[in-house]
Amino acid sequence: MLLSAVVNRVRGHLEALQQGWALRILRDKHEADWLRLNERLTLEAFRRSARRVPAYRRLLAQRGVEAAGIITLGDFRTRIPLLDKATVFLDDDLADWCLDGDLSGLTSFLTSSGHSGVFSYGVNTEENLRQSARSIDLGLEAYCDTSRYRTLVVNALPMGVKISTRLPIAETSVRADMALAVIRKFVPPFEQVVVLGEGAFLKKLAEDGARDGIDWARRRTHWIAGEEGIAENWRSYMAQLTHVQIGSATQPLIGSSMGIAELDLNLFHETPQTIQIRRWAHVDPKLRAALFGPEARVCPMFFVSYPHRTFLETLPAPGEATEAPGELVVSMLSPALKLPLLRYRTGDLARLFRFSDVARVLNEHGHRLDPGPELPFVAVYGRQKALLIGRHVVTPEMVKEGLYAQADIASRLTANFHMAIDGEELRLTFQLRAGDEPNDLQSAALHEEIARYVPPVPFSVTLMPYASFPWNMGIDYERKFDYLRSIS
Hints:
It is a single chain. The protein has helices spanning 2-28, 31-52, 54-62, 73-79, 85-89, 126-144, 176-186, 199-211, 232-242, 272-283, 285-292, 355-364, 396-403, 407-410, 440-450, and strands at residues 106-111, 121-125, 151-155, 169-171, 192-198, 220-226, 254-260, 264-269, 301-304, 310-316, 326-332, 344-353, 377-382, 387-389, 392-394, 413-422, 425-432, 459-464. It has 488 residues and is α/β, with parallel strands linked by helices. The strands form five sheets. It has a six-stranded mixed β-sheet, with helices on both faces. Strands 9-13-12-11-10 form a five-stranded antiparallel β-sheet. Helix 8 (199-211) packs parallel to helix 9, helix 10 (272-283) packs across helix 11 and helix 13 (396-403) crosses helix 15.
């Protein structure tokens, strides 16, 4: 027992030293260093796949691509074929897309949500799970101060989404009662908790906890949303509900990360810096237009990306200007990946930014970036499911900002809503929390808030009792909610 305790203590010190070293590297590298590293690792990843992935070798041969002729990033961008879910995952033999053409060494699989109609899969070995854990733990140390506070992670993501971390973790899935029981039981003795989940479920969890007597102000709790993008007003609502002061270096983080099952569960994430930038743009239309485009009525997600892990591109939509958002294309660079996808179309719309470009735009609008890692940024607009009313486009992201604008209204809603066109009018139907009943005054107030974010189109707002809401309620919080889905 004594020897085991000593070994664990030594291992903990070594891990802390490694994290400190890695954080110093992130802070000290300049933009030009990242660009050079990104080019070298991208070309190395291509050559490795061209040599060791059977299906990729065949694809290159079919397209007439000689691996030896790919010398620069320009060659890579213009001559290497794109991949997508159908190319890789409708193939009968997934092993053919894996390094060395087999599934040996795999320890786990992760399925996507199936929201697109095609399931994709992440495949994990012990080594890339260790790398994933190091990456996640490094982020938690940088932004949640896990070496200072004894930390418990609560994974409240849907069943099957496993988080690799060396921190103590409770896997509760989307059971609010289980997650709250764990937090009550173990915080303390743990000094803080990091809760991971989809934004609407984290809302429910925080609300249920407050109603059941949990004083969030006395429990140091970080809230990290995944699965889909969050409204900036969601962050403000969660901060008010849990007594967090956004922007304070000593306060818990209310943030978001983006993962794609077949690529990485922590592909991009927010930082205090990106959160501040997004909040500035949320309230400043001129800054929002300069960063995210003149048509941006709400802010997209705004993340940092890591040039030693991914090479990013965007494909401009036909007929769109090159500076407009384009489809995100990701190349994964780690040699530890068993399924090394290159130039993979994610289906998300995005814009890419160099650190220096964002710093310049902010300076032009009276803001300054605090010193920090000169990492590139990526704005993710999501899949941009939308309704077209006349010449105007209305997205769920616009409606979400209105939903969370007033705390007393947001607290009565589950955050599930349905969008439909009725003649020339947009019809919005919101699901009330169980036990709440429709209220004309609050419907009118919600209508007024939503009107601040959607284009000038006629629309109606209906609040519907929980059990009467008919859309996409097969499994609460297990599936991504489809805001435009018809009743089946």
